[in-house]
Structure formats: C-alpha cells, structure tokens
Amino acid sequence: MSSETGPSVPLSVTVGDKPLGIDEVVAVARHHAQVVISPAARDAMSGARAVVDEHAASDRAIYGVSTGFGALANRKIDVASRDELQLSLIRSHAAGSGPEVEEEVVRALMLLRLQTFTTGHTGVRTEIAERYAALLNARLTPVVHEYGSLGCSGDLAPLAHCALAVIGEGPVRNADGELLENAGLGEIRLSAKEGLALINGTDGMLGMLALALHDLRRLATVADISTAMSVEALLGTDRVFAPELHRVRPHVGQQASAANLMQLLAGSAVVASHRGEDCTVVQDAYSLRCAPQVAGAARDTIDHAARIAEVELASAVDNPVVLEDGRIESNGNFHGAPVAYVLDFLAIATADLASISERRTDRLLDPARSNGLPAFLAGNPGLDSGLMIAQYTQAALVSEMKRLAVPASVDSIPSSAMQEDHVSMGWSAARKLRRSVDALTRVLSIEVMAAARGLDLRAPLAPAPATAAVVALLREHVAGPGADRWLAPEIEHVVHLVSEGAVTVAAQSVTGPLS
Fold first, then answer.
1. What integer pLDDT is reported at residue 277 of this predicted model?
2. Which CATH superfamily is domain 12-201 in?
3. Is 63 annotated in the active site?
4. Which helix (H) or strand (E) holds 490?
5. Residue of 63, 147, 286, 341 marked active site
6. What tens digit of pLDDT does each residue of 309-357 get?
7. Rounded to two decimals, what is the model's pTM?
8. Is the four-CA dihedral 153, 68, 101, 411 of positive or negative sign?
9. Under CATH, what is the fold of the domain 209-275+282-317+332-409+424-462?
C-alpha cells in the first residue's frame, strides 16, 4: 500500500496496557512503528507461565500440554516429551503453500499474537514475546504462504510459519525484501503449551480485517468525492442531498454521506446553472440520486465490522486458556465465525460501492445520457476513443468483485479426522476482501478521472471549489481532455493519488474535514 497523507503515524506502540486499536495495528503493520511490551504485560505473562509450569509437571490431562493435538487429543504425552511435543507441533503445522503473503499482513498477525500473549491467558514466557517484538522491530518478516488456514483452531499454518521463524528455524525477509534462511537471532527452545499458544488464534484474519477497515473508511470518503464530481459533470441536482430528506430515514451512514455531498457541491456554478424552473429533468438516475443510500449502507457496514474487530482486539484467543483462578481450560474461542462473517459482509458492501461508481462512469461516457458531453469524453469522437476502455477496466474489476462477494464463511470442510468438523474459512474471507478493497480503489479512481474530464468539458461553467481542487490536483499529474493517449499510466497516477489520500486532502482543503 502507498504511504498516506494525513495524521502522523506513531513512532512506537505499547502492547499490554490496553487493547490495540485499528490505527495502532496499521502503524506497526504498514508503517513499521516500533513495538514496546509494557511492564504490566510482563508481570501478567510471568504469572500465567507459573500456572502452566505447575500443571505441566502433573499427570493432569490438559489438551496440548499432556495430550496430542486435534484428533490425537486422546493420546497422552509423558512429562519428559512435553517440550518436544511443542516443537513437533510447530514443524508439522508450518504446512502452507502458494504465494507469499504480504509483509503488512504477516506483521499484523505477529503483532496481534503478541498482544494475546501479553494478556496473561496463554502461558507463554516473556522471552517468546520479546522475540516477536524483536522481529517486528528489526523488520524481519517470516515467510508465510497464501494457503493453509481454515480459520478454525486459529490461523494455524500462517501462525506456525511465523512461529518457526521466531524459534530460529524458518526463513524471513529483511526490510529490503531479501530472503534469509533465518532471523539470525538464535534458537529458542519451546516449553510446555507454548507451541500451541503460538498458533491458536484468529490473528491473520483479524489483522487483515483491521487493515481493510482502515482503508475502507478512507475510500468511503473518496466515494462521496467521486459522486459529487459525477453529479456536477452530469448536470445532476444537489437538492436530493438536503439534510431534511435524510432525517426522515435517519441511517447514520446515509446522513454522513449526504452531508459530505452537500459540502462538496457547495458553490457549484455547474449545479446552479440548471436549478431554475426551465430545467426539464425531474429526477436524476438512481446512481446519482441514491448515492447516499448506497454509500451510507456501506459506511454502516464498516462501522458494524469495526465493532466486531474492537471486541476481537480486546480478546485473548487461545486453547486451552489460562484463567485467573489458576485453571487451564479447553474452549472454542479460536473459531473465526465472528470475524469471518463481517469480512464477507464487507466484501458485499465493497462490491456494491464499486458497482454504483461504475454506473456513474458509464453514464458520463454515453452521449445519450450525459446531458451534452461528447461520446466517451473524447477529444474527437470517432477518431478518438476517449475513456471508453477505462470503463471496460472498471467493468472487469466490478465483475471480479461480485465473485469475491460470494461468502467464504458459509463453506466448511471437516478436518483432523472429523474432530474439527466445522470451520470458519475466515482467512479465505480476509484474502478475498483484500483483493476487493484494491479493486474498489481502482474503480473509484477511474470515476474521479472521468468526472474530472467531464467537469473540464463543462467550461466555462465552474465546478464547486472543493471538486475544482480535486480537478486541479489531477491536472498536476494527468492531462485534461484532448487526443487519445496511453491511458494505463494515467489511471495508475490517479490510483496513487486516491490511495495515498491526496484526493481527499485536496477536497478537504476547501470543505474542512469530511465524514
């Protein structure tokens, strides 16, 4: 992901004093903020470790401490072999395959696993937690593969690959992307329960959810900006965005989106030019008139998903778990259903936000519906094709997003000899949401690009100051209407401006903060 224009990123994040927030996860995962383990967290880990050591030396049957794993939970492990059991677990479970997972995803899942250690519910020694922090701070990223997690019993294979690197056996990439045989920090011998605690969490899917929420909140604002530009360029009305209309159906996200549109369109000479009694257009098309309803529903979905993420970020996901009264109890908190559901829900909202954006772009390019704009916004239609194929690119992206919106969480393939007979597929839901968020960025960027060209073609009528600021930003990087040019680099320029936050900053330089 690109660097972002906006509030400064913290230089360090403390783990263990309180649950991490989404912005803190992004700071460490994407911007490489340093990680500090709090003194209180060290005390909590030491206390939990003492409980585990007491149980590990006994004959009690404790899952993953004195027994095997999964369907092998009925096999008792003698005291002398219990440390070896943990190393065997990490090696056998590091069974991922396929392409490498992105650095920011691996860093997010390592940070979140570290946070769970610091709760004092896992029994992991402080030395293990310190090694996770050391790898993050040195920007040594374990090699994790795309396939291997079913989103139940935790993101087992991805977390096992990280654990393998932590104990000194697995490959890592350094800050320059070079592949190293190991982290070079020496080997660590695992003790009872530690191997299981390193891999039994929802950290991968949760990390990807946190990153997606951060990006989708920014893109929700971009969607309002691109909508405002298209409304102007298509000679639409701003009357349907009036606050009194949205108070009669007071969805929070809808009201926020409509308020943004009113701010963005304030002072538009283009909109004012057809506001009189002689205007023959009674109602705009749905893609214009219903934009706050669709974008608002997406915003409310993002907020719902954020509430689930906040609960998960405040949780200690492990099995078995060390309780305050000294018991070690098996549980099912590793099941990824709560996270998987909202990952799938977000993929649906993301696809619909892209779909309505593509419809506005198509309308801008069609002379039968664009209220006087040239075909495909071309300089010389016929000789020039203008932005015709840019809309094809949008359509291809939206079609892909519709496939990505098919829920992963309704699938389940039993594993471990039917012991783990219902799984969440939350990791898969998170992987496809990442692709969908990237696609939405590109779809909105193409709408911004097309609408800016449409506004140029409305001259001498002036757009609103806020949308004019966005057009001016684009013109610093991408030329306006004219003869056909190579479009791909121009699209990428605009994608960069959207993803780094420059488009939003330009609009807000006039409006002030947008929702």
1. 64
2. Fumarase/aspartase (N-terminal domain) (1.10.275.10)
3. yes
4. helix 487-499
5. 63
6. 999 999 999 999 999 999 999 999 999 999 999 999 999 999 999 999 9
7. 0.95
8. negative
9. Fumarase C; Chain A, domain 2 (1.20.200)
